[in-house]
Target: Class I SAM-dependent methyltransferase
Amino acid sequence: MKQNLGTEEAIKRWDTFADTYSKNHTEQGDLHKEVFLNPTLFSLMGNIKNKKVLDAGCGEGYLSRIFYKSGAIVTAVDYSPRMIEITKERTPNDLLIDYRQGNCEDLNTLEDNSFDLIVSNMVIQDLANYDKAFQEMYRLLVDGGSFIFSILHPCFITPKSGWEKTESGEKLHWNVDNYFYEGVYEQPALGDKEKMLFFHRTLTSYVNTLINTGFTIESIVEPKPSKEMLKKYPSFEEDFRCADFMVFKLKK
Ligand SMILES: C[S@@+](CC[C@H](N)C(=O)[O-])C[C@H]1O[C@@H](n2cnc3c(N)ncnc32)[C@H](O)[C@@H]1O
Model:
């Protein structure tokens, strides 16, 4: 397949997928967000009352609404016009969130040093130019501000990874291949009418790009399900075998 990596095409792909994607989301996001990402993000964020927060790649906006309800002053951007429509429809009028259509790789309508915290949940692996997005996040943060982002774990979710199973479907072990490939790949599990594209990079590339941008790494988390979540969703027991996600907390 010849993949079209232009921004307009990427926006069209997300526009087409936006309704299907949003259907899985409650006010806690989808199941993986509820079990793995939300607890990690919230513990890394701490108290955000009166903080200026940017939700970078907000999707249908569940995080923006949680941030607002936690007392933050919230701006949210997404490059998909359909996603922005959905998030506005889902946001009650008394939640004063500044939703904008914008590309995380170039947020020139937002001013330098204007946010205390930027959160980008499961967006960075969508970006063709993640280095530009990191530069934008750095520019937008006040000195001492934090940038928290989550991605698919680059060491385990690669262009060729998945369970090795017996004929009867028993999961033997998780296979990883093509780790050092850096570039675009199709995510077979995502997308209905059109396949969604992700970008794989090695852990080294992520860390060095962040350091070269000027960030200090404050924390890295590979989320595991808590006891409470396992009680609620026992099938996540298998997530103690390898990590699906990685979350970074950076400081400017
Ligand atoms: C996997 S969804 C995550 C949405 C949201 N952060 C959440 O946790 O529910 C990725 C979102 O990022 C948006 N996105 C991808 N690349 C983007 C870019 N360059 N600029 C702005 N938004 C982008 C997509 O339109 C989509 O809404």
